[in-house]
Amino acid sequence: MSDQASTGAALASAADFGTYKRRFESDPFNRMLGITLEECGPGHARICLAKTSETPQGIGGSVHGGVLASMVDIAMLAAIFAELRPGQVPAGTADLGITYMRQAHGDRVFAEARVVKHGRQLANVEVDITDAEGTLCAKGRVLYAFRVVEPTG
Fold this sequence. Notes:
six-stranded antiparallel β-sheet; 29% helix
């Protein structure tokens, strides 16, 4: 199990948000993008990107679409890993789609993930990307895959 996944499993069982938040925010990719974890619990997560001069930009100084797609994947992982089931081993993102509705401007951009269905081998997650005013900028849909390891004994 990955370090982030084992941390998520610990969050689900011990409700230790502080430990999970520290590990999440120490991830090099999250740090590079300026992403922090605001909320996390089984089936739900909210992350925040603090825009800086180093944040990749799109048209008109908006946040680059690739960064928004990364935020979809990152928020989804936090929501999924917070509700891993016994015997489920993370296998990776199977499908990720994003619909851009408007440019994401401002100093802070948020991604909020909700697990729609968590099955044995696949989870379906929806992610809303909003600006600081709460305006919907993009909508993501993700299928995440698990391997199921049967207990031996």
